Amino acid sequence: MDRTLIQEILEVVEQAAIASAELTGLGKKDEADAAAVEAMRKRMGLIEMKGRIVIGEGERDEAPMLYIGEEVGSGNGPGVDFAVDPCEGTNLCANSQRGSMAVLAASDRGGLFNAPDFYMKKLAAPPAAKGKVDIRKSATENIQILSQCLGLAPSELTIVVMDRARHKDLIAEIRSTGARVQPISDGDVQAAIACGFAGTGTHCLMGIGAAPEGVISAAAMRALGGHFQGQLVYDPAVAQTKEWADYTKEGNIARLSEMGITDVDRVYEAEELASGDNVVFAGSGITDGLLFDGVKFETDCTRTSSLVISTLDNSARFTNAIHIKEGAKSISLN
Description:
Radius of gyration: 19 Å
Structural class: alpha+beta
Helix content: 25-40%
Mean pLDDT: 94
Distance between the termini: 34 Å
Number of domains: 2
Strand content: 25-35%
CATH topology of the largest domain: Fructose-1,6-Bisphosphatase, Chain A, domain 1
CATH superfamily of the largest domain: Fructose-1,6-Bisphosphatase, subunit A, domain 1
Order of helices and strands: HHEEEHEEHEHEHEHEHHEHEEEE
Low-confidence stretches: none
Number of helices: 10
Number of strands: 14
């Protein structure tokens, strides 16, 4: 990977966001996802690289576009691994709610953990708390540590948690410390990354979400110097999801073993989930969110708001782009 690839990666998420945003608010989550997938795949195909999807839409037979193991790019140039979520928060997009975005992480070959389609317990926190909070500690202990690291009282802290039945006890414990809970319905990647920036009003992400999105979050937080840890969840009683209604704890452990994961209780640090020498995160808003605005359609142009975080030059770039339409007559600055 090199710096010239960053601009192309940015355009990948921009195009995916625009395609999905065309369907915002129409209640068509599957169609919005498919549009983003196709746009992302098409733009990737123009990049001079030997790209490979390591986290995508599923296995080949289940997802014909951007499937795990699919090769993308021209076939020439550097080898790059991708973890992609073309429309993170499909329900948010379908219902025109905040927080949906097109997102990916990229790294040198072998630099991203091939996360199975499982759930993951996650902990994200600001750089000041890196290595001090720990996913193995209780929420109460971590909030006390976070309070000390940030110089804020627990009552001044906001903890983001996915609004799920499995988090009932977690939410109760967080509130018992005096900290505030911000529940979200979907899309925990943006919430995790927001913890890496001061001034967002988001101080920590706790709870269980999807494992593939955990890798994308880890890539961003590693590049930012923030704290991120993940631990796979394999017990259906813990996940509490209808998708695992017929699954068993023993069966899930066997599935992980088949994937080469034998230490099922291992806690993964950001540097393990995104271990490549060069790691890039890119996200572009579909709808307005914590970090950037969503796509805005105007008569003569389309506007996108995006973020690229890279270890190549230790930078985080917020980018507002104007995509000029053919025959445009008048384009305003704002």
